[in-house]
User: What shape does this take?
Amino acid sequence: MSEEIILEAVGVTKRFGGLTAVDEVSFSIKPRTIKALIGPNGAGKSTMLNMLSGVYRPTSGTIRMKGKRIDNRKPYQIAALGVGRTFQTVHLFGNMTVVENVMVGLHMKSRGGILNSALRLPPVPRDEKIVFERAMGLLAKVGLESRALEIATNLPYGQQRMLETARAMASEPALLLLDEPAAGLSSKEAEEFATLIQMIKESGVAVLVVDHDMRLIMDISDEVVVLDQGKKIAEGTPLEVQNDKAVVLAYLGEEL
Assistant: This one.
């Protein structure tokens, strides 16, 4: 794999019984780029993300992260190789504070780890201040520093999305997978999230985003992959994809 490619999917297929959800899809992601994966409902977008993050194993095909095969690895192993992820439905630790949610992600990188943190075993005491300060720094980047000590589930929905993204970034991923991050957000919140995604890219992280908000996708993406009924029907710049006859047919049911 070229050093200019951080993730590569080749001929990836996923079948559930007689249903083919993803059908021989191939694409790659370069460092410091935002790639979008779009398509009508049922196109196979979330299934593809689930395979990239280890939730599902492909029926066939290969997926490589930094040259290493990950299609046969467990989610935690893939995360350790540098893949972070958010989900369609916000996943937070509801009984923890905002800052504690981010600290969970940071403990994956600390010497103490999550188990030692829970048992208060060495070397957590001397690491805890550093982890807390780093968590506060991440919260500042998403505008949640002032709400650090509140219970996470008390945040408005849009801020919960921001928090989940901050926690995903805590593991210092090389690639961040975002599954419908703008779903349920107001126009203003979606604009704020678009700014955050651009900041993540500028920090050196590659992003793969799935969303139905076409304005968001076309504004932030460097490249777009379009799926329809499990197959890749187009790939290119946002402008190229918008003018692709197969894409217009899939979305509108009519040709240009």
Observations:
- The first strand starts at residue 7 and ends at 16.
